[in-house]
Amino acid sequence: MNYNESTSLRLDQLRAGVAALEAAQAQASSLRIAREGLVTNFLSGVFARASVAFQDFATAVFPKTDAAILNGFSPKETVEMESADYTKLRKVQVSTMEGFEGKYLTYGKYVLTSLSYYDNVLSVQLAEFRNLLGGIINNHEDRKSLLSLQGKYKEYRSILDALDREVSVYWQRGSFKAIRPVGDVLDRTADVVEINRDAKLISEKLKQVSFEQVQAKVSEVRDLIKIALEVIDSKGLKEVSDPQLKNLSQGIMGLAESVEFYGLVLYRANVYVAAVARLNEAVKKIA
After folding, report:
1. 70-74, 94-98, 244-248, range with the lowest pLDDT
2. How far apart are CA 102 and CA 145, in angstroms?
3. Cβ(94)–Cβ(180) below 8 Å
4. How far is CA 240 from CA 47, 135, 201, 217, 235, in A?
5. pTM
6. Strand locations in 36-155, DSSP E?
7. Residue 180: phi, psi to the nearest 5?
8. Residue 151 contacts by C-beta under 8 Å, 6 or more apart in sequence?
9. Residue ranges of the domains in the chain?
10. What does the angle CA 13 – CA 16 – CA 17 come to, to the nearest 5 degrees?
11. Tens digits of per-residue pLDDT, 215-261?
């Protein structure tokens, strides 16, 4: 599976899917349909949707963009570039990122911020969910801790939404335009220095990411969710209240959203570094 900007559509589909399941569950409950069969079908539906995100991430191949492709600028080239004629440069056509619309300087800073998502959110979610699932599997009394998921789900969701909102405005859904005048992505030639500084930081952060390790953690949690749902089903569902059930489904889908979003973050970071390298080549021809 390859991540790209269409992944943001999949995030919307994940959310719509669980909302539909919750609505169906609420309607069936009001009609007094047998609860145990209802819960089993509901949880199976939630897990099926979340599993797509987990499986895609676990099997994805994430390229590591080498900072060397940025080439950079020598002190002499930097001086020449900063004094280059922007009126000429702004008309030069450059290969950007498909569907991108905005300035590299501000966008790069949002990408840099987004790369902290794993350390600040996803790694914490994976660890918490792993402990929670272990408790459900080994001791059904720990299901009471499901009630704490609602607050955490809202907290993590707000962080994801804020980051995605900052970056997604730069992408035009349905647009395949990738060739633009330099003036569309750059306000002045002097900004290239800071753009390259941020791109190098992004590249260094990508080098520090152990994709295989993150994928292994995601696969482990996916397997634990499956086992936990089997345990809940086999031990009887009377002890699982409706609020607990909803919180468990939100927790599963929230984790799936985080996994999907982090894959999108890695994609955006890699294509940005490559795009900056192409911008450098265009600038050098004018400077």
Report:
1. 70-74
2. 44
3. yes
4. 17, 14, 47, 27, 10
5. 0.83
6. 93-95
7. -140, 160
8. none
9. 7-286
10. 85
11. 999 998 888 888 877 777 666 555 566 677 777 777 888 888 899 88
